[in-house]
Design a protein that fits this description.
This protein is of the alpha/beta class and 418 residues long. The protein is built from 13 helices and 21 strands. The chain has a six-stranded mixed sheet with strand order 10-2-1-14-21-20, with helices on one face.
């Protein structure tokens, strides 16, 4: 089965889906008001980690005890804007419940593993297919700790990774100094996830995928979708008033997906985990393996633009202005982690803030809407958008062609009554 499909959103999820659908013979229109890969576009500021280890949900047993601290400490790795609390509370309660037991988080980890386990290999193939081999490298990913005791304090997380086949090796202090001398003395133990990969320029990568899709016949419309209508044929209303019709519409608009679907009576519980990044553009990072120091909970990725420091989770409403103090926290952690950065007294920095579209159960929403089967959801990926994009594209194609496997069922919108 093929036909005409509109993909709303040209971030990594929408771009990858558009290419996959075009390869399968669908007539695809891709819509986004921002240029693919531009700083204003989705996925530009991604940390670039393609990690099979990213299967650990944000909500874990005992997290509820830390909520008062999240409200009071505006500099911690996770913070909650107290002024946004009235809007966040229903989502937050479901979020805490989702991680209230080991049984629940074990299930979530297993489901995320289905999406992520072959993510590095899939992206290496996607990069080759789109002529961007230089942007996706598989050198592993390093999780750094002050000592073994700090690593063992995260025993449940690494137990879940082992259960799901994530391959890793331990590095002692000698190995760290030999393999990654730029990492400062506070870190004396590390875990190397050997199959992990990373993207050196997520913006260019997304733009390249869209360009490859266009070569396959995808029509790109540089206009934002302002409304989705569902009738005999679903329609997307573009900024400026133009209306596109198709057999199906794939909604891959990230945090804006909820706003587009709400007029149709669709209520998906989704909030923004606002993430920040600082890119040190005054020189290339003197290492090739991305690092996540445990003290700052930030992904430190060598990119074509310099060392990108990305992370932080700020739960706040979408329209709230950025809190750039969060970016300063990233910079302070980086100075403590990499002595070479302290030697640069006038670093050139670029700051950015974006929205991770996150569901309370830690799983993306992928598949047809129960009351609007012509509309296919593909959003809510939280921290794993880039890593999960190839598998998401497969599931979107399956949904369009009415193939819903048992593996796909846990991601369906019907779990939220939609």
């Amino acid at each position: 089965m093929t036909g005409k499909v509109i993909v709303v959103g040209a971030g990594i999820i929408g771009a990858t889906a558009a290419l996959r659908l075009a390869e399968a013979g669908w007539d695809v229109a891709l819509c986004d008001g921002n240029a693919p890969g531009s700083e204003a576009g989705a996925s530009y500021g991604n940390g670039g980690w393609i990690s099979p280890a990213s299967i650990i949900p944000m909500s874990m047993p005992g997290l509820w005890r830390k909520v008062p601290g999240f409200l009071l400490d505006r500099n911690g790795p996770l913070t909650i804007d107290w002024r946004s609390l009235p809007q966040l509370t229903p989502w937050l309660l479901r979020f805490l419940w989702a991680g209230a037991s080991k049984t629940r988080v074990r299930r979530t980890a297993k489901l995320l593993n289905f999406l992520l386990h072959d993510g590095p290999e899939r992206h290496l193939e996607l990069a080759r297919k789109t002529g961007q081999e230089q942007l996706v490298l598989q050198k592993g990913l390093l999780y750094a700790y002050p000592d073994r005791a700090s690593f063992e304090a995260e025993a449940l997380s690494w137990e879940l990774r082992r259960e799901n086949g994530v391959a890793y090796v331990e590095w002692d202090e000698t190995e760290i100094r030999r393999r990654l001398p730029a990492l400062g003395p506070p870190y004396r133990f590390a875990i190397h996830v050997v199959n992990g990969a990373h993207c050196r320029d997520t913006g260019s990568y997304v733009a390249g995928i869209v360009e490859a899709a266009r070569r396959k016949g995808v029509q790109f419309h540089p206009s934002a979708v302002t409304a989705i209508l569902d009738g005999v044929m679903p329609q997307a209303v573009l900024e400026g008033g133009e209306t596109l019709s198709a057999d199906r519409i794939v909604v891959a608009a990230g945090i804006h997906s909820g706003r587009l679907l709400r007029p149709l009576g669709v209520r998906i519980p989704m909030q923004s985990e606002r993430g920040y990044h600082v890119t040190v553009t005054s020189g290339q990072a003197p290492f090739e393996i991305p690092v996540m120091p445990s003290t700052g909970r930030m992904a430190n990725t060598p990119t074509n633009m310099g060392l990108r420091l990305s992370g932080q989770v700020e739960l706040a409403t979408v329209n709230k202005p950025p809190n750039w103090k969060r970016a300063q926290v990233l910079q302070r952690h980086a100075l403590a982690s990499y002595p070479y950065l302290a030697a640069d007294k006038t670093p050139h920095l670029r700051l950015w803030m974006g929205h991770r579209p996150s569901t309370p159960d830690g799983l993306p929403v992928i598949g047809p809407l129960s009351r609007h089967p012509s509309l296919i959801a593909a959003f809510g990926h939280g921290h794993v958008g880039i890593a999960a994009a190839p598998k998401t594209a497969d599931l979107v194609l399956d949904a369009l062609e009415s193939r819903i496997s048992d593996n796909a069922c846990p991601f369906l919108p019907s779990r939220f009554g939609q």
